Amino acid sequence: MNWKIIIAAGLILLSTNLYAAKPDKALPFHGVFSGYLLGFGDVPAGRCDDVPDGKVAWAMASFEAWGTATHLGETYLTASHCSYGWPINDPPYVIPDGTYGEGELELTADNGDILIVSYTNGESLEPPPNAVFQEDIKFHKGGTGRFTFASGGGVDIGTFNALDGSITLQMNGVIAYSKRQK
Questions:
Q1: What is the DSSP letter of 44?
Q2: Cα–Cα distance between 154 and 169 in angstroms, integer?
Q3: Which pick of 14, 29, 55, 63 has the fewest CB atoms within 10 Å?
């Protein structure tokens, strides 16, 4: 009877290793995070060049969060994006409208590997103070370690509480990564 358990365990380990040996296969990606707005800063020259028609980039919003993600485990997240609004002639010279884009996000795994994510088409689905937002995410800039040649993408949905600066994020999509570029 012990040899049956050993064979079964060996087959399970072998099948797990065979599955892991196909790194370019698109695998499900899921992450859940909570954190805080770090602040709104000036827009650096050349950073927010893809502004929607008729709008202006009025600030860079920065966030940090902690949580877990498939393929990373316990994860630290930093993010920043261009916040857009409608220009007006009087101070403050812009009316923020809840749209944003040109976002860059870094997910740092416990082992130090970094997955770089871009996010676009940011849209506030509910207005502040308890905003609900959604954006498209892409894993096309790679990262470090096993994510050097990562690809894939999905959707990020979250909340932002303008009263205390807290955020929640939930990412869902697919990811593929390998040790070398093809």
A1: -
A2: 13
A3: 14
